[in-house]
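G., the chain you wanted modeled:
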Amino acid sequence: MKRFNQFNKLLKWLVSISFGIVLLLILFFWIMTVSESKILMLSIFIIVPIIQFLITPLFTLLNFYTYHSPMVVSFGNNKRFIDLHNGTSFDYLLEMSHIKPGIKWKNKMLHHYLNALLKIIHQIENKVLPSNITIRGSSYFVSQRSAEKLGFKVSQASLLEKLNITLNYVDLIWMYSLTNGKLTFPNLATITTVRTNGHELIKRKQKIIELLNRLENQASR
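Predicted structure as tokens:
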């Protein structure tokens, strides 16, 4: 499938609006169905991933999503904090569908994460973002060990964060499974929050560059 960002602007809008219409129809029929049978509320775990897939093109065009790399996104533009998330299933389809599950998939995702951090560093250095900006994410975004090496502090995830992750559990299952090369069920009880700031991130710039170079050398072999 051709990358969405390679479409001309008119085609992007046509795709985005078409997806939006499909989403509205799905939500309408889902709400009508749930009103007749409350047990079907459990299907929300399927509906949430569908919503995220179909809304991604429109939210991208409206700048509700800010991409720091093709697979790392934050919501909106904010100069006080950046809340990092994995890309949506739409992004995975466009960017990762050709990557073999397992170590290659994991390394490619790590490459996207490190590029995202490097982009933020460049924006801080060029005064686009303030140096005291807070950068955060959940532990499913990056492992606790890797986060600590990059200067992130680890803390307990909030109730709201845990709820959001729970609603996205179906997406997390296939993300984890592709990363590990086998069916894997993430443990929600171990989800934590990682946090740093612009000052600390800049200190790790050379470390990030070295890790990126190492990944690129491995990929070229």
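The mean pLDDT is 87.

Shout if anything looks off.
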